[in-house]
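Notes from hallway chat w/ T.B., transcribed later so I don't forget. T.B. wanted the structure written out for a chain they're using in a teaching module, and asked if we could keep both sequence and structure tokens in one place. Agreed to drop them here.
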Amino acid sequence: MNFLSHYYFDRDATDCYFTLGTVLPDLLKNADKTIILHPEKLVHSNPNVNSVIAGWNKHLLVDKYFHTADFFLHHSHALKKLLVPAIVGSPVKPFFLGHIGVELILDNLLITTNKISVDDFYSHLDSCETDTINEFLAFAGMKNPGVFSKFYESFKQSRYLATYANLGQVTYALKRICMRVWRDPFTPEHETAMSEVILSYREGLLDSFMQIYEEIGAKIKH
């Protein structure tokens, strides 16, 4: 799941460090894909650091349920098949697009159906002290927290996730993600065709997308 989908499950939480933890694995991956941390079983003397760890573990749990759910398996495959003719000649693997595309569409739907507040999400992140974040990163074994800090400040300032309300931005986000692997993943024609597929698929999910959140929510409670 993407950032806002993770946030959905704890949108009423009041602990900013827990909220940060629920999206931190993906933030670190975006900052530098070579960063690999495993703080899952660590315990720190600072309760705020432990909140980050608790949020981190919640992230892993949600992702486990999401990526094994029939909803994700079905829709990522169906979207992949629809995108294949839209990206003929592109080096991008269709299964990769199907996977990421479903996650981005879900974030768009959460925003546009008012299931979450993007401003509230960023308010949580803004409330976290840099020293505490660096304390967590050092405790988890990261040698140079400054690499993350620069990315993180830019991430907060840009308020980039708010743009997901615009469906056209979903295609742009897909392109940016693919550019981490492929230098020139799409032509303008590819992007236009992808946008049409994504718009159509989003409309088809509008009435049923909440079932995946309800399913995962039920599993978490048990």
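Follow-up for T.B.: DSSP finds eleven helices and no strands in the chain. Might be a good example for the class.
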